[in-house]
């Protein structure tokens, strides 16, 4: 197995609220291999975005990381002094978001914004040098006529171009890890295909690792080497991408796969999952998916199931996996 | 048989003005630029395309929610392009709409029962008691419970709100429902619930849907026929089977090729289309797709191709439709054996619950 660039251990991110402490991320352990892509999939409210903000130490108050470690090449980011953490952001770990329009400042030109990101980490660089490097950064994300785009403003660019600018800014200081939070969700499919292509090319050029957060199983299949499926703040299943798609173990993973209409399949009805994700202040005591799970039996409601090995590097948090063996034993629901 | 809804050469042009004291028209946004199609009773016609292609504007034009700049709209054989007053209200009873954003389309101060009953009250159908009974029936139809009528929109999840929107559209017993991206804002597991519900309601009530979407996989699941739009024009119309198995227009092919498949073995087979959609203020001359078309020839830059029939109902607006090589139908192999086996167990267990 390749050495991990980043490992997250027992991460727990909580919010104080009127109803007590709510855990948005509850005991998550994951690792990102060097030069590879970890895809984190889940529906809204599963904690996938909060997980990435926790890694960056950007959890908005009243939220805070209550427990766990985030090791970047062995250094725990959660205990770094603030000034050092500021250096890590951008230079070692960079992030891009779903909506490029709200992440860009509308009153500054594209070029100024890229140079600002560079200057923050290299205050001694000269203006001419920064300008050349910013134009090179735009060229690197395949923006046509980068010298002209350099002077333009965000509203003059299409959604796909704006996301390219965001990627150029994120990669300006050659980070080791790029966290991409739903980078193509706001884009049309043909533009999405361009951006995914670009991310793949940049990864093979630079050798950076990527954490790709998405709700789209198609995007995950297209990009990820490793996949973690999250549900209600926990990891339900994780493993190599092919194992997750070809040998899915957790009933939630199955439900997700069954819910998406596929081009290569003719079905009269989609296999929807009944009900909806439980709110974080009313989580079931046992397995969090049990109330929606057709395979749930009484032990499922007793205690949260731990992740356990199914196959090589493939783990699922389900006491009934693999389900056919479990059903054969006569533990019918 | 007369189609339920038929639009011909429909157009919507918005003037673009500039100047503070004296506003001058400096350009025209051709949002919808000559669109013709028909929706038959009980069928689903999907209008697909990327953002800015005019699909939502077309949907609103078809219901007369906005006024067309040109063209005609026929409903059940009758020209409704210029009707008003009582005649237009009568049309509204027969054709309803479900919007994309279930958060924005419900009044936060109106409880769900009143929201669903409002169209009936507006049209003067029944009295308070009979409307209440009908609301309960409608809630049951969309998978909600009678006690939900007293609750307010903020108490519901996105999927439940979309069910409320559907119940409200059904309250008029319409023949046509325009679904404007009804599942785009929902999580995948919830999306599947709503798609299944729409198909079930269609079977029970013989509804016709004009289904606006950008997701071709969803469209493949719900539609009978599909019309692909680009920059305000329909480029290809065909039965679902023909469109997905043998797309004729290069744009349709590009759209299909751009969809990421939920199968890691097929990684990297996506071939992105270059460039961006041109502005609807400056639609390219000739074929509007030629600036991005991998097959474009000289004729494509000069002559605007009309939508023309090929074979049984398949229509395409491309000069080169006959000379292009057959599309290789490359849609993958479906689920892997272990996944398929467990999905079958999942379905069986769920049916038993």
From TrEMBL, chain A:
Q: Where is the ABC transporter domain?
A: 9-257
Q: According to its record, how does it sit in the membrane? A: Peripheral membrane protein
One short Pfam name that applies is: oligo_HPY
Alphabetical keyword list: ATP-binding, Cell membrane, Membrane, Nucleotide-binding, Transport
| Tree of life domain | Bacteria
Q: Where in the cell is it found?
A: Cell inner membrane
Molecular function per GO: ATP binding
Which InterPro entries does the annotation name? Answer: AAA+_ATPase (IPR003593), ABC_Ni/Peptide_Import (IPR050388), ABC_transporter-like_ATP-bd (IPR003439), ABC_transporter-like_CS (IPR017871), Oligopep_ABC_C (IPR013563), P-loop_NTPase (IPR027417)
Q: Which Gene3D superfamilies match?
A: P-loop containing nucleotide triphosphate hydrolases
CDD domains registered for this protein in UniProt: ABC_NikE_OppD_transporters
Family in the record: Belongs to the ABC transporter superfamily.
> PANTHER family attached here?
DIPEPTIDE TRANSPORT ATP-BINDING PROTEIN DPPD, OLIGOPEPTIDE TRANSPORT ATP-BINDING PROTEIN APPD
List the protein's name. Answer: ABC transporter ATP-binding protein
TrEMBL record, chain B:
Q: Which domain of life is it from?
A: Bacteria
Protein topology in the membrane: Peripheral membrane protein
Keywords noted in UniProt = ATP-binding, Nucleotide-binding, Transport
Q: Name one Pfam family in it.
A: oligo_HPY
ABC transporter domain segment(s) = 5-256
Q: Which family does it belong to?
A: Belongs to the ABC transporter superfamily.
Q: What is this protein called?
A: Dipeptide ABC transporter ATP-binding protein
Source organism per entry reads: Plastoroseomonas hellenica
Q: Highest lineage ranks of the organism?
A: Bacteria, Pseudomonadati, Pseudomonadota, Alphaproteobacteria, Acetobacterales
């Amino acid at each position: 197995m390749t050495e991990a660039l980043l490992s997250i251990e027992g991460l727990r991110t909580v919010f104080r609220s009127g109803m007590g402490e709510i855990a948005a991320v509850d005991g998550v352990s994951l690792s990102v291999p060097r030069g590879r892509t970890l895809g984190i999939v889940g529906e809204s409210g599963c904690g996938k975005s909060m997980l990435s903000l926790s890694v960056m130490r950007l959890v908005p108050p009243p939220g805070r990381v209550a427990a766990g470690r985030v090791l970047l090449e062995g250094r725990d980011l959660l205990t770094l002094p603030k000034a050092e953490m500021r250096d890590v952001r951008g230079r070692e770990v960079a992030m891009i978001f779903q909506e490029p329009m709200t992440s860009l400042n509308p009153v500054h030109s594209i070029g100024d914004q890229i140079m600002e990101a560079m200057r923050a980490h290299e205050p001694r660089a000269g203006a001419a040098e920064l300008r050349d490097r910013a134009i090179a950064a735009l060229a690197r994300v395949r923006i046509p006529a980068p010298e002209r785009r350099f002077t333009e403003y965000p509203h003059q660019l299409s959604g796909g171009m704006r996301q390219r600018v965001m990627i150029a800014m994120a990669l300006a200081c050659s980070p080791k890890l790029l966290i991409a939070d739903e980078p193509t969700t706001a884009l049309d499919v043909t533009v999405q295909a361009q951006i995914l292509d670009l991310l793949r090319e940049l990864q093979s050029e630079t050798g950076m690792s990527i954490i790709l957060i998405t709700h789209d199983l198609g995007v995950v299949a297209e990009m990820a080497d490793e996949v973690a499926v999250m549900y209600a703040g926990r990891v339900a299943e994780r493993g190599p991408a092919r194992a997750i798609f070809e040998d899915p173990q957790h009933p939630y993973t199955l439900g997700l796969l069954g819910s998406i209409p596929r081009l290569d399949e003719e079905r009269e009805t989609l296999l929807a999952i009944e009900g909806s994700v439980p709110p974080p202040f009313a989580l079931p005591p046992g397995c969090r998916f049990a109330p929606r799970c057709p395979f749930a039996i009484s032990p499922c409601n007793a205690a949260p199931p731990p992740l356990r090995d199914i196959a090589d590097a493939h783990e699922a948090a389900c006491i009934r996996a693999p389900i056919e063996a479990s059903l054969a034993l006569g533990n019918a629901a | 048989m007369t189609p339920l809804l038929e639009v011909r050469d429909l157009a919507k042009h918005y003037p673009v003005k500039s100047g503070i004291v004296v506003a001058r028209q400096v350009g025209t946004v051709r949002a919808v630029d000559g669109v013709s199609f028909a929706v038959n009773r009980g069928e689903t016609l999907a209008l697909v395309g990327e953002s800015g292609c005019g699909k939502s504007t077309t949907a609103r034009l078809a219901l007369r929610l906005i006024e067309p700049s040109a063209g005609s709209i026929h409903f059940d054989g009758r020209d409704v392009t210029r009707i008003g007053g009582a005649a237009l209200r009568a049309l509204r009873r027969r054709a309803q709409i479900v919007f994309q954003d279930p958060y924005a389309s419900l009044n936060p101060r109106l409880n769900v029962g009143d929201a669903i009953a409002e169209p009936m009250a507006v049209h003067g159908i029944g009295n308070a008691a009979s409307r209440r009974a009908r609301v309960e029936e409608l809630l049951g139809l969309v998978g909600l419970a009678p006690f939900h009528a007293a609750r307010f929109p903020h108490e519901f999840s996105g999927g439940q709100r979309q069910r409320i929107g559907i119940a409200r559209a059904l309250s008029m017993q319409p023949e046509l429902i325009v679904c404007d991206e009804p599942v785009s804002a929902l999580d995948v597991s919830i999306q599947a619930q709503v798609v299944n519900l729409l198909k079930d309601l269609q079977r029970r009530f013989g509804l016709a849907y004009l289904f606006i979407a950008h997701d071709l996989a969803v469209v493949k699941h719900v539609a009978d026929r599909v019309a692909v739009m680009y920059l305000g024009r329909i480029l290809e119309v065909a039965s679902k089977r023909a469109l997905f198995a043998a797309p004729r227009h290069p744009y349709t092919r590009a759209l299909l090729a751009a969809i990421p498949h939920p199968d890691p073995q097929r990684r990297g087979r996506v071939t992105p289309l270059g460039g961006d959609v041109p502005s609807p203020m400056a639609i390219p001359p000739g074929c509007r797709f030629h600036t991005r078309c991998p097959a474009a020839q000289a004729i494509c830059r000069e002559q605007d191709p009309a939508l023309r029939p090929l074979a049984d109902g398949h229509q395409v607006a491309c000069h080169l439709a006959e000379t292009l090589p057959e599309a290789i139908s490359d849609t993958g192999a479906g689920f892997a054996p272990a996944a398929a086996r467990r999905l079958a167990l999942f379905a069986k267990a769920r049916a038993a619950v």
